[in-house]
Amino acid sequence: MNYKKFTLDNGLRVVFVPLPNLESATITVWVKTGSRNEEEKVNGVSHFLEHMVFKGSKKRPSTLEISQAVDAIGAEFNAATSKDWTNFYIKASVGNLETGMDVLSDMVLNPLLKKEEIEREKGVIIEEIAMYEDTPMIKIGDVFEELMFAGSSLGWDVAGTADSVKRMAKSDFERHRESYYYPDNMLITVSGGVDEKEVRGLAEKYFGELKAKSEERKGEPAFNKFSARQAKPQVKLHPKKKEQAHLILGFLGHGRGYEGRFAEAILSAILGGGMSSRLFIEVRERRGLAYAVKTSIDRYIDTGYLATYAGVDPKKIEEAVAVMLEQHYGISNFQFPISKEELKKAKEYLKGHFALALEDTKEVNDFTGLNELFLGKVETPEEIFDKVDSVTIENVVDAAKKLFRPERLNLAIIGPYKDGERFRKLIE
């Protein structure tokens, strides 16, 4: 995969990946801000603003006019907000690239932020928060991060709370935009069957007028750095009457640029990366304790974690947790050694899934965008494959020893339980 990177006159970076065999292209606008950059009283403003971008812009002053412009070219568009980034994208046929760029730039750079729309959208977001509360497979991730990142804005819900959403006013969105929506803190990624000259011209035409940060707000944007204070295993119980218990068991890890991240990725794949992974076999196939069990890694710029999710019979949760811990610690203490065949399988699993993901232009933009936004560089798939292949069994075991320590352990549970003391004793 070849990519081009250039900077507009106003300082806005553009990363372009030509995929000449495709008849489509995806344009993504990235903003380096999310819920971790917010003040507690306006927690959720990044996510709320993402919603408001679709409610009317300078050229298309209503939701209907924006959606009609997108539907008229057979395109798809959406947006997302995380703890540390917000993005907006349009995927269209190559012949409609300019229309896509026009609509997207108008939405992101010129939202109307009508007061009546803000008030109306508050109800929508409060219902979204309620929906996640009633969806334990999603909610458990929030409970886990609340536990692991307690005392930090990283532990806050991306959508905010019902109270913080109700307090939002137009001035909050304007202040947020002025603080974060400027060229040096933004990025455009484009991938698909278009050429560099066209991308350069359209990016300059539709984003070239984006102004630099005002003088009175110069300096680095707000960033609430996470400082780990954990000294022993932690448990957080979210009591809820459900037919199934949901849990995440995880260990505090490392940030986006960590040099050992490829060894950690292989460790994650060995533990719970597929239907032949250790946890899938031990927890589901041999003991029948769960339908779903999956290990993954999440990273922020300064911290991260390796964690395993499982949905289990509430009566068998202690057994499930015990098996999961045994499998984690069994790698670091050599109880369950990693074989050469297992290492090779994990490497091919990672490379294969990564290669499949890059067949989608939106996924290509996600890969290039996050790397450029946070690390200032984009590694090619070939470079990543080489780094994965260079990992040894010793590297993976060393990663396990660094991660799987009691003072890094966190367990979050949603289920029909009255208190978490029984689980605290189990993990201690």
UniProtKB/TrEMBL annotation:
Superkingdom of this protein's organism: Bacteria
One Gene Ontology biological process: proteolysis
Coiled coil: none
InterPro entries: Metalloenz_LuxS/M16 (IPR011249), MPP/UQCRC_Complex (IPR050361), Pept_M16_N (IPR011765), Pept_M16_Zn_BS (IPR001431), Peptidase_M16_C (IPR007863)
GO molecular function, one term: metalloendopeptidase activity
Peptidase M16 N-terminal domain sequence ranges: 14-137
Domain Peptidase M16 C-terminal: from-to ranges: 172-349
Family: Belongs to the peptidase M16 family.
Entry protein name: Peptidase M16
